[in-house]
Write a structure and sequence with these properties.
single chain; A middle domain of Talin 1; elongated; two-stranded antiparallel ribbon; 11% strand; two-stranded parallel ribbon
Protein backbone atom coordinates (compact mmCIF):
# COMPACT_ATOMS: atom_id res chain seq x y z
CA UNK A 1 0.00 0.00 0.00
CA UNK A 2 1.42 3.39 -0.98
CA UNK A 3 0.40 6.16 1.38
CA UNK A 4 0.73 9.83 0.47
CA UNK A 5 2.82 11.67 3.07
CA UNK A 6 -0.03 14.08 3.82
CA UNK A 7 -2.73 11.39 4.17
CA UNK A 8 -4.50 11.88 7.49
CA UNK A 9 -3.63 9.09 9.94
CA UNK A 10 -7.15 9.33 11.34
CA UNK A 11 -8.55 8.31 7.96
CA UNK A 12 -6.26 5.29 7.88
CA UNK A 13 -7.24 4.31 11.43
CA UNK A 14 -10.92 4.75 10.68
CA UNK A 15 -10.66 2.76 7.46
CA UNK A 16 -8.96 -0.13 9.20
CA UNK A 17 -11.69 -0.14 11.84
CA UNK A 18 -14.42 -0.06 9.16
CA UNK A 19 -12.94 -3.01 7.24
CA UNK A 20 -14.50 -5.84 9.35
CA UNK A 21 -17.81 -3.96 9.52
CA UNK A 22 -17.87 -3.72 5.71
CA UNK A 23 -17.20 -7.46 5.42
CA UNK A 24 -19.78 -8.49 8.02
CA UNK A 25 -22.45 -6.23 6.53
CA UNK A 26 -21.92 -7.70 3.08
CA UNK A 27 -22.04 -11.25 4.43
CA UNK A 28 -25.22 -10.64 6.42
CA UNK A 29 -27.00 -9.11 3.44
CA UNK A 30 -26.15 -12.16 1.33
CA UNK A 31 -27.62 -14.62 3.83
CA UNK A 32 -30.86 -16.03 2.38
CA UNK A 33 -34.08 -15.86 4.36
CA UNK A 34 -37.22 -17.99 4.01
CA UNK A 35 -40.66 -16.36 4.07
CA UNK A 36 -42.21 -18.19 6.99
CA UNK A 37 -43.66 -15.46 9.23
CA UNK A 38 -47.27 -14.48 8.56
CA UNK A 39 -48.06 -10.75 8.64
CA UNK A 40 -51.44 -9.99 10.20
CA UNK A 41 -51.30 -6.18 9.95
CA UNK A 42 -49.20 -4.99 7.01
CA UNK A 43 -49.57 -1.29 7.82
CA UNK A 44 -48.37 -1.75 11.38
CA UNK A 45 -45.55 -3.95 10.06
CA UNK A 46 -44.41 -1.30 7.58
CA UNK A 47 -44.71 1.51 10.13
CA UNK A 48 -42.62 -0.37 12.69
CA UNK A 49 -39.81 -1.14 10.27
CA UNK A 50 -39.81 2.38 8.83
CA UNK A 51 -39.27 3.76 12.34
CA UNK A 52 -36.24 1.51 12.64
CA UNK A 53 -34.94 2.67 9.26
CA UNK A 54 -35.37 6.34 10.07
CA UNK A 55 -33.94 6.11 13.59
CA UNK A 56 -30.87 4.09 12.64
CA UNK A 57 -30.15 6.09 9.47
CA UNK A 58 -30.38 9.29 11.49
CA UNK A 59 -27.98 7.83 14.05
CA UNK A 60 -25.46 6.93 11.35
CA UNK A 61 -25.83 10.48 10.01
CA UNK A 62 -24.99 11.79 13.46
CA UNK A 63 -21.87 9.62 13.69
CA UNK A 64 -20.58 10.79 10.32
CA UNK A 65 -21.38 14.41 11.16
CA UNK A 66 -19.33 14.09 14.36
CA UNK A 67 -16.37 12.86 12.31
CA UNK A 68 -16.73 15.81 9.96
CA UNK A 69 -17.13 18.41 12.70
CA UNK A 70 -14.36 16.91 14.80
CA UNK A 71 -11.93 16.94 11.87
CA UNK A 72 -10.41 13.64 12.98
CA UNK A 73 -10.40 14.42 16.69
CA UNK A 74 -12.47 11.29 17.35
CA UNK A 75 -12.08 7.73 18.57
CA UNK A 76 -12.21 5.67 15.35
CA UNK A 77 -12.77 2.33 17.07
CA UNK A 78 -15.55 3.67 19.28
CA UNK A 79 -17.23 5.37 16.33
CA UNK A 80 -17.19 2.16 14.29
CA UNK A 81 -18.56 0.19 17.26
CA UNK A 82 -21.51 2.56 17.44
CA UNK A 83 -22.00 2.33 13.67
CA UNK A 84 -21.92 -1.45 14.01
CA UNK A 85 -24.84 -1.27 16.47
CA UNK A 86 -26.92 0.93 14.15
CA UNK A 87 -26.17 -1.14 11.04
CA UNK A 88 -26.87 -4.31 13.02
CA UNK A 89 -30.34 -3.04 13.89
CA UNK A 90 -31.01 -2.25 10.23
CA UNK A 91 -29.88 -5.73 9.22
CA UNK A 92 -32.05 -7.36 11.91
CA UNK A 93 -35.05 -5.44 10.62
CA UNK A 94 -34.13 -6.32 7.02
CA UNK A 95 -33.98 -10.01 7.92
CA UNK A 96 -37.40 -9.79 9.59
CA UNK A 97 -38.83 -8.16 6.47
CA UNK A 98 -37.37 -10.85 4.22
CA UNK A 99 -38.82 -13.58 6.48
CA UNK A 100 -42.28 -12.02 6.34
CA UNK A 101 -45.00 -13.74 4.34
CA UNK A 102 -47.78 -11.22 3.60
CA UNK A 103 -51.04 -12.10 1.93
CA UNK A 104 -51.49 -11.52 -1.78
CA UNK A 105 -53.25 -8.19 -1.21
CA UNK A 106 -50.28 -6.91 0.80
CA UNK A 107 -47.42 -8.33 -1.27
CA UNK A 108 -46.76 -5.07 -3.13
CA UNK A 109 -46.28 -3.10 0.08
CA UNK A 110 -43.97 -5.79 1.45
CA UNK A 111 -41.93 -5.75 -1.78
CA UNK A 112 -41.53 -1.95 -1.69
CA UNK A 113 -40.42 -2.05 1.96
CA UNK A 114 -37.92 -4.83 1.26
CA UNK A 115 -36.47 -2.95 -1.72
CA UNK A 116 -36.27 0.28 0.26
CA UNK A 117 -34.20 -1.43 2.96
CA UNK A 118 -32.04 -3.12 0.33
CA UNK A 119 -31.36 0.22 -1.38
CA UNK A 120 -30.32 1.93 1.85
CA UNK A 121 -28.13 -0.95 3.05
CA UNK A 122 -26.36 -1.18 -0.30
CA UNK A 123 -25.66 2.55 -0.23
CA UNK A 124 -24.19 2.24 3.26
CA UNK A 125 -22.19 -0.80 2.15
CA UNK A 126 -20.79 1.14 -0.80
CA UNK A 127 -19.75 3.95 1.54
CA UNK A 128 -17.91 1.47 3.75
CA UNK A 129 -16.20 0.08 0.65
CA UNK A 130 -15.09 3.58 -0.38
CA UNK A 131 -13.51 4.15 3.03
CA UNK A 132 -11.73 0.78 2.89
CA UNK A 133 -10.55 1.51 -0.66
CA UNK A 134 -8.86 4.67 0.55
CA UNK A 135 -6.93 2.59 3.09
CA UNK A 136 -6.08 -0.25 0.69
CA UNK A 137 -4.70 2.03 -2.01
CA UNK A 138 -4.87 5.72 -1.09
CA UNK A 139 -3.10 6.94 -4.22
CA UNK A 140 -5.52 5.13 -6.56
CA UNK A 141 -8.43 6.22 -4.40
CA UNK A 142 -7.36 9.85 -4.73
CA UNK A 143 -6.80 9.56 -8.47
CA UNK A 144 -10.26 8.03 -8.84
CA UNK A 145 -11.63 11.23 -7.27
CA UNK A 146 -9.44 13.45 -9.45
CA UNK A 147 -7.15 14.48 -6.58
CA UNK A 148 -3.38 14.45 -6.84
CA UNK A 149 -1.59 12.65 -4.02
CA UNK A 150 0.83 15.60 -3.93
CA UNK A 151 -1.91 18.07 -3.05
CA UNK A 152 -2.97 19.07 0.44
CA UNK A 153 -5.75 16.59 0.95
CA UNK A 154 -9.35 17.63 1.24
CA UNK A 155 -11.27 14.46 0.54
CA UNK A 156 -15.03 14.27 0.88
CA UNK A 157 -16.41 10.81 1.44
CA UNK A 158 -20.09 11.61 1.04
CA UNK A 159 -23.05 9.31 1.16
CA UNK A 160 -26.40 10.63 0.06
CA UNK A 161 -28.99 8.00 0.90
CA UNK A 162 -31.68 8.43 -1.69
CA UNK A 163 -34.91 6.56 -1.10
CA UNK A 164 -36.46 6.15 -4.57
CA UNK A 165 -39.18 3.75 -3.43
CA UNK A 166 -40.30 5.78 -0.41
CA UNK A 167 -42.93 7.75 -2.31
CA UNK A 168 -44.29 4.59 -3.93
CA UNK A 169 -44.51 2.95 -0.52
CA UNK A 170 -46.27 5.99 0.93
CA UNK A 171 -48.84 5.95 -1.88
CA UNK A 172 -49.39 2.21 -1.48
CA UNK A 173 -49.96 2.47 2.28
CA UNK A 174 -52.43 5.32 1.79
CA UNK A 175 -54.42 3.25 -0.72
CA UNK A 176 -54.28 0.15 1.46
CA UNK A 177 -55.38 2.07 4.55
CA UNK A 178 -58.36 3.45 2.63
CA UNK A 179 -59.30 -0.05 1.44
CA UNK A 180 -59.12 -1.48 4.94
CA UNK A 181 -61.04 1.42 6.42
CA UNK A 182 -63.80 0.87 3.88
CA UNK A 183 -63.99 -2.80 4.86
CA UNK A 184 -66.58 -2.96 7.66
CA UNK A 185 -64.97 -6.16 8.93
CA UNK A 186 -61.79 -4.30 9.87
CA UNK A 187 -61.91 -2.95 13.41
CA UNK A 188 -58.51 -1.28 13.45
CA UNK A 189 -56.34 0.32 10.81
CA UNK A 190 -52.71 1.22 11.41
CA UNK A 191 -51.82 4.46 9.69
CA UNK A 192 -48.28 4.94 8.45
CA UNK A 193 -46.91 8.43 8.95
CA UNK A 194 -44.98 10.34 6.32
CA UNK A 195 -41.79 8.71 5.13
CA UNK A 196 -38.53 10.55 4.88
CA UNK A 197 -37.45 10.63 1.26
CA UNK A 198 -33.82 11.47 1.78
CA UNK A 199 -31.06 11.08 4.34
CA UNK A 200 -27.67 12.70 3.90
CA UNK A 201 -24.49 11.31 5.40
CA UNK A 202 -21.42 13.38 4.77
CA UNK A 203 -17.92 13.14 6.15
CA UNK A 204 -15.06 15.49 5.31
CA UNK A 205 -11.63 13.90 5.36
CA UNK A 206 -8.85 16.38 4.92
CA UNK A 207 -6.72 19.02 6.54
CA UNK A 208 -6.59 22.78 6.58
CA UNK A 209 -2.96 23.22 5.60
Amino acid sequence: MSTPPNMEQSLITFGEAVRPLAASTRGRMRQPQTQTVEVADILHFISRHMRVLQNEADSICDEVDLISKGRFDFDADRTVRRMNVHVGRLLTSYDAIRRANPGEADSRGWFLLRELYSDVLHQIQNWFDDVVEMVNDPVSGLEKRGISSEENLSIRLDLSLSLPKANSLNRWTARRAAELKADSRVQHVSILGGLATHFSLSSLFGNDK
